[in-house]
Recover the amino acids of this structure.
């Protein structure tokens, strides 16, 4: 226990019940394991312990960690700890569903559960439910649900039958009266209210009778006459039907048509009647809603029995069934007492994601003698769509404070100080101001690690991408993130290795790409595939998207139907037979009835036909896995895969797919035909099957934010960071606390009051959960968080809210137009094949030289002719995506560049802070401060010679030289001195030498200098250097006229080149280092 912080120690040793509010990265698993060790030290027997985790992986991790701690304690007291270690397998450490399964199996009579039913994964169970749903509905007769349209009935029952325990709790909140009884009760309430106000009604009637309408065509006159008729009727129902059904407008009537204040009296009477009786009136939509719910409740009871009968028939069960049967058992007092006596200690991990339905089970395990330890973080409650309720941990914390301990673990061992401070600030803003029971308080974290690996790098990058179409924005965001990852790898960005406790260069496996919704995933993946960045999708349809698994599905489709031409063509082109496209085309060109018939008639394909016929014969008796393995064996498919790139990954995915087929086999899909159909249903239902990830795979991880929970990565990229949840209006709303509400398919009808209230409540909860989802995403990052912000009009409000929250934190903002993000497609050079150095033989050039060039183009050519080619010969506008080290002030890339603003300020002689601020209205304050700092640097001692000189500024020239015209602007010059101001982060005088040499030559001024404002350095070129600069121009022109455009790539120049993304010769740092090593050690 020596490695515990004071708060962790308090959580571990708390004498009674304890709720541990464990912040992100605060070591909750370590604390939970130490808590168990502490309890065992106090004499707790392993069999008296029940620990509930959110996932099976968490259960395995907790168990293995406790066992490791126990082994380390053996030397202290071998007899005692040896016995504890031997007995520890008896400890109940599992997920809630494993616990429910145990309760149901140990009490089959009380739970009404079968002993040997197979529990299906969520997607597989939904697939089974869909397949039997038509059979379930056969138990219903149309007259039993006359008020429920079939589409609404079907959707409601699908939802309810998928989660019987939540359905029981929700339907329990529904009014139990029959529609007739409810109507009588409502009528009685309305009649009582009507009679209660009889005096007031009659008084208003007398007042109305004193008024007269002089023009019977007045629009208010029908209302007046109706009021005279209904104010003294005895039957309140008659009043309600006539009054609330009449057309009425507050602006109706003309005062001159009425005697006295008749118009006002009519409107006042209508307002009073509405205010007094509106709440008690009988609305048709409310009557329909109650009838529909009553019928739904009856239909659910009938279909639930049928659903369970089919479950027994097919020997299947879902996770929700386990909860249902466990609750059935726990409603019996003797079952509660049995487990309360057995388990003296209950530990619950990730309690913030517990649903009210699950809590009804866990709560019954507690007695006054039971000690409980609950670990959770309300800020990370993100499973509302599965029924979890953040209010549970809030309520339990409040209860435990009265007779126990609530401990906040606020030290993050994951993230460095600067990034923790960003998270604290952002969510302090985002969490505040929500007056709702589901809102949470932002308890700030503290960082155990102070230093960040890259001291000059910001902690959070915000990449804002503007554009019109959402699809283009997503595509641009994907390309941008590819370029950013390439730059991180190329620049050997430093990250902290927690295991080795050292800083090291980032690897692909250190980077996680998180996303909220899967709808745009293919767009993002397309960019990564195009760029060749290794990546793996760990949530979504990852396995079925892999090419080797698509091969297997294609094999099965052919085996199920040999006359499926597309499947057979794909099979022939696969690694099984490796036919080329021309060979397949030869077969299809002369195709007869089908491709299978043509293949059998082709002498050259005799071996292929023999193999396929043998496999087809096996499909009658063999299982889908056996048939596949036979095809693999006869075609040596695994051997072929082993020779391909990512061989280990491919082979593991094929094995994982076989496991899927085995699961289907256990569900009754025992032949190729049934398995193929089941796979199709899985794809249509969106069943998530993650691909197999080799432990050694160095690849970027793609996963949903929910999948990332509990994980950490040195670098996290959050796509579409401003994701806004949709304003859903589902036909069926179900809540275990608030009941069930329905929306009629006819949109012309008013929505029932119950639906409006439940919808509003669920929308507010959803909005708050979206903020918590972002919190989970932000806190996955250990060293660098990169936010992608494709900005649409819909997202402007959350954008400004996020910018407000980030204000004053360690972040940088980069802004782009979507169409400026470079393409990832390589652009072939103008001259292919032999080196362009062989050109110049007098033949025509593959390009036309322009009549004029910018003087800055000389430096570009000398650094890399390929970059010159792209920019000045082909007009390809690259974008210089530089993510440089931070300056002393935050650098915000928005609007004009800082260099351009500095030149403007110097040209206009705006040297004071006030002048710069007044003239650059709208620029970010950080930019204003940076411009002022650079302009003010001219007062440095290094620039004393420049003071008080009569400079001519910003003069444009067209300079003819050696048959070419060069265009340029001279920053400042006198009769004897040329000055060029630079705001570059790096000093590279040689790059600018030709430019100044040309100015010097044209103006006949012998002295030229570069003024490096960031470095307080004045670099002056002498006559010899200026002459050399002209020689560089001569060399460039000679090379151009001979067609020489060979690239000169290097890691440094390629990193800062605006064409790095589409240049086929661009190199990374590793390649450059290898080349340098080869030159050094040939």
């Amino acid at each position: 226990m020596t490695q515990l912080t004071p708060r962790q120690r308090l959580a571990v040793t708390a004498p009674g019940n304890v709720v541990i509010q464990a912040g992100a990265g605060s070591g909750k698993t370590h604390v939970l394991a130490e808590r168990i060790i502490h309890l065992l030290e106090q004499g707790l027997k392993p069999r008296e312990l029940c620990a509930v985790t959110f996932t099976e992986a968490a259960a395995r991790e907790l168990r293995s960690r406790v066992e490791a701690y126990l082994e380390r304690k053996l030397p202290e007291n071998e007899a005692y700890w040896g016995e504890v270690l031997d007995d520890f397998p008896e400890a109940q450490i599992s997920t809630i569903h494993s616990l429910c399964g145990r309760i149901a199996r140990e009490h089959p009579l009380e739970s009404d559960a079968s002993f040997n039913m197979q529990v299906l994964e969520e997607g597989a169970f939904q697939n089974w439910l869909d397949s039997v749903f038509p059979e379930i509905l056969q138990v219903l007769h149309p007259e039993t649900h006359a008020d429920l349209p079939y589409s609404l009935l079907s959707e409601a029952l699908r939802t309810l039958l998928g989660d019987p325990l939540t359905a029981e709790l929700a339907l329990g909140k529904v009014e139990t009266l029959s529609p007739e009884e409810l109507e009588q009760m409502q009528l009685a309430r309305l009649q009582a209210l009507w009679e209660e106000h009889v005096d007031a009604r009659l008084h208003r009637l007398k007042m109305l009778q004193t008024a007269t309408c002089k023009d019977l065509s007045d629009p208010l006159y029908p209302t007046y006459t109706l009021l005279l008729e209904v104010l003294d009727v005895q039957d309140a129902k008659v009043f309600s039907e006539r009054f609330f059904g009449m057309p009425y407008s507050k602006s109706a009537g003309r005062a001159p048509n009425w005697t006295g204040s008749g118009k006002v009296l009519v409107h006042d009477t209508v307002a009073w009647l509405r205010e007094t009786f509106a709440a008690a009136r009988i609305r048709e939509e409310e009557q329909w809603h109650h009838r529909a719910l009553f019928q739904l409740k009856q239909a659910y009871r009938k279909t639930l029995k049928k659903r369970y009968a089919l479950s027994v028939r097919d020997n299947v069960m879902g996770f929700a069934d386990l909860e249902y049967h466990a609750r059935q058992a726990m409603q019996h007092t003797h079952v509660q007492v049995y487990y309360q006596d057995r388990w003296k200690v209950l530990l619950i991990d990730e309690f913030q994601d517990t649903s009210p339905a699950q809590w009804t089970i866990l709560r019954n395990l507690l007695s006054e003698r039971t000690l409980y330890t609950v670990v959770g973080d309300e800020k990370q409650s993100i499973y509302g769509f599965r029924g979890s309720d953040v209010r549970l941990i809030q309520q339990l914390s409040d209860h435990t404070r009265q007779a126990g301990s609530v401990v906040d673990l606020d030290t993050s061992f994951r993230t460095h100080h600067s990034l923790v401070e960003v998270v604290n600030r952002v969510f302090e803003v985002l969490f505040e101001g929500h007056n709702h029971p589901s809102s949470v308080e932002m308890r700030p974290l503290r960082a155990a690690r102070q230093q960040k690996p890259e001291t000059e790098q910001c902690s959070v990058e915000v990449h804002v991408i503007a554009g019109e179409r959402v699809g283009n924005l997503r595509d641009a965001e994907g390309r941008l993130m590819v370029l950013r990852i390439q730059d991180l790898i190329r620049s050997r960005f430093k990250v902290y290795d927690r295991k080795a406790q050292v800083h090291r260069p980032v690897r692909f496996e250190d980077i996680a790409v998180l996303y909220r919704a899967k709808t745009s995933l293919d767009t993002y993946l397309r960019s990564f595939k195009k760029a060749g960045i290794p990546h793996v999708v760990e949530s979504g349809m990852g396995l079925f998207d892999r090419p080797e698994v698509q091969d297997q599905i294609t094999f099965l489709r052919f085996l199920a139907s040999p006359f499926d031409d597309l499947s057979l063509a794909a099979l022939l082109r696969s690694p099984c037979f490796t036919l080329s496209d021309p060979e397949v085309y030869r077969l299809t060109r002369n195709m007869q009835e089908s491709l299978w018939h043509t293949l059998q008639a082709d002498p050259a394909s005799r071996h292929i036909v023999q193999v396929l016929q043998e496999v087809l014969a096996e499909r009658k008796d063999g299982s889908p896995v056996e048939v596949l393995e036979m095809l693999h064996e006869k075609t040596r498919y695994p051997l072929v895969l082993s020779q391909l790139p990512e061989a280990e990954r491919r082979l593991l995915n094929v094995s994982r797919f076989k496991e899927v087929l085995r699961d289907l086999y256990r569900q009754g899909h025992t032949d190729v035909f049934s398995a193929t159909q089941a796979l199709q249903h899985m794809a249509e239902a969106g069943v998530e099957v993650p691909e197999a990830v080799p432990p050694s795979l160095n690849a970027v991880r793609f996963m949903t934010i929910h999948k990332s929970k509990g994980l950490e990565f040195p670098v996290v990229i959050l796509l579409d960071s401003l994701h806004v949840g949709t304003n859903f209006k589902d036909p069926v709303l179900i809540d275990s606390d608030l009941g069930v509400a329905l929306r009629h398919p006819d949109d012309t009808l008013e929505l029932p009051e119950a639906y409006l209230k439940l919808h509003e409540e669920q929308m507010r909860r959803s909005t708050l959960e979206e903020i918590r989802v972002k919190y989970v995403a932000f806190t996955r990052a250990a060293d660098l968080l990169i936010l992608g912000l494709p900005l649409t009009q819909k997202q402007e409000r959350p954008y400004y809210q996020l910018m407000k929250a980030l204000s004053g934190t360690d972040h940088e903002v980069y802004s782009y137009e979507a169409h400026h993000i470079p393409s990832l497609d390589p652009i072939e050079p103008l001259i292919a094949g032999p080196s362009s150095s062989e050109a110049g033989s007098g033949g025509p050039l593959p390009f036309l030289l322009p009549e004029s060039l910018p003087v800055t183009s000389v430096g570009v050519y000398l650094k890399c002719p390929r970059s010159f080619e792209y920019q000045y010969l082909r007009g390809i506008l690259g974008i210089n995506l530089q993510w440089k080290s931070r300056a002393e002030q935050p650098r915000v890339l928005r609007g004009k560049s800082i260099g351009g603003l500095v030149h403007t300020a110097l040209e206009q002689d705006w040297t004071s802070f006030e002048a710069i601020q007044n003239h650059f209205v709208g620029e970010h304050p950080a930019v204003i401060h940076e411009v002022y700092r650079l302009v003010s640097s001219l007062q440095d001692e290094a620039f004393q010679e420049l003071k008080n000189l009569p400079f001519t500024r910003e003069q444009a020239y067209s300079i003819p030289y050696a048959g070419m015209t060069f265009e340029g602007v001279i920053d400042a010059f006198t009769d004897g001195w040329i000055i060029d101001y630079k705001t570059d982060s790096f000093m590279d005088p040689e790059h600018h030498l030709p430019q100044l040499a040309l100015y010097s030559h044209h103006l006949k001024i012998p002295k030229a200098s570069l003024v490096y404002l960031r470095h307080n350095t004045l670099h002056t070129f002498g006559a010899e250097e200026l002459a050399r600069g002209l020689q560089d121009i001569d060399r460039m022109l000679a090379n151009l006229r001979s067609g020489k455009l060979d690239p000169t790539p290097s890691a440094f120049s390629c990193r800062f080149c605006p064409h790095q993304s589409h240049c086929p010769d661009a190199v990374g740092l590793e390649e450059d280092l290898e080349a340098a090593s080869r030159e050094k050690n040939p």
Confidence is low (pLDDT under 50) at residues 832-841, 885-896, 1075-1082. The CA atoms of residues 21 and 408 lie 5 Å apart. The first strand starts at residue 18 and ends at 22.
